[in-house]
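Me: Here is a favour to ask of a fellow structure person. Could you put it straight underneath, so I can go through it closely?

Assistant:
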Amino acid sequence: MMLRTRRIPLDTLRENVAVLASNCAALRPEAFQAFKRLEIQHDGRSIVASLDICHDHSMVGPDEIGLTEPAFRRMGLPEGSTVTIAPARSPQSLDYVRTKIGGETLNRHQIEAIIHDIVGYRYSDMEIAAFLVACAGFLSTDELLDLTRAMASAGNSLVWDAPMVVDKHCIGGIPGNRTSMIVVPIVAAHGLTIPKTSSRAITSPAGTADTMEILARVDLTTEEMRAVVGECNGCLVWGGHVNLSPADDILIGVERPLNLDTREQMVASIMSKKKSAGSTHLVVDIPLGPTAKVRDAGEAMRLRKLFEFVADRIGLHVEVMVTDGAQPVGRGIGPVLEARDVMAVLANDAAAPADLREKSLRLAARVIESDAAVRGGTGYDRARELLDSGAAMTVMQKIIAAQGRAPAAPPPGPLTADVLAHADGIVASVDCLRIAQLARLAGAPLDRGAGLDILKRVGDKVEAGEPLYRIYSAGESHFDFAVDAAEQANGFALAGLGGMSGGAR
């Protein structure tokens, strides 16, 4: 069955989607109901795609197959190329998924086969979700190790010409926690190699890659990344472009809408990325707080032990720090506002957020103490010296130039509204999840200038009518959504006269 390819300008995210006309010359209309997925082949290359039927024959002709943007890109052929289509056979590894659903444990070969087919886009999102839900029910320690190794080996693996390659990672969930952009230049200024690959936002108002992109290009190739690290000792790039543990990005894209974030899946995700990035020493930041991902000390301890267990087995030295996750870190929430805070800390600006500076110094200190030449307990003084002297800012500017300086950063969104306290009192708590939701409603991270500026913190006294935070947006609809949502539940709880008031409702 031969058809000519036609590019359909539709982004179907991760999924390959093929579109056939209802009067397709290669298949009778009644045959469309017999299968849901196609294998598309050309000269030894192939992809598997979900099948949609189009009744508008001006979009896809009877002798054509339409490929949405991801499928067209992965097929890698000029438009109009002739391809062969056939019903796609179900991957054998789906039998292993059914085994896992049945409550049995999987061996290394079975897990590797599943990850191989996921990376090959042979699974639908529904099939990936079935695997994730089955693993969320129970995952043995052997399965966790096999999953981590399979994910690490499924993409590129970086090898560095350095005896020690350090890294720092936060498990996420705290708005404004942009410490990596301060830790990397401090550690690089010390002389350690720290090639930092970071993610873009999925459900948060900004990922490190989104914020760094305000200052510099982040979609570097592996060769460009090596050049930057060779020149600067470190980099801050988007990990998705260098194809490290690609299964992780696919799995996360399905996990997040389902709100699946088990300890085991989190550890496999993070450790596979670090192993494939060539790291030898890793500091993991686990924020602990009532609205953070980890909400009690017992859970933090269990997660720390899982990190240590996997690290020991895959040859990675890990240090776990449990940090304060009771409220957002810094002031800005959203790419432009977070980049402003980062550069203020690096510039030793007196108005820079003190909590962002302090947390970054403590994390950098722990990374620096991986250096055998640094005596235990002196890492903090060394980190502060590198920040206070301007050495860290010098390295950051060098990294920005080496990666490719971005055009002038856009200003914060022109539409603003202050969210006010409804009563006198003291800020008792801040809901991190709600604050992140409000920043996204305002348009972050796609609207780079959108987000929130936090004006009050836990313990601060406020008077009725005083601003708690400011909303920034560039679009009327996003602005209205955020303002209306903040009126319903602003994420702040006040204590004082009359007890609790003005909090998230």
User: Anything to note?
Assistant: The chain has four domains: 2-87, 93-138, 166-245+254-403, 415-495. Residues 93 and 113 are 6 Å apart (CA to CA).
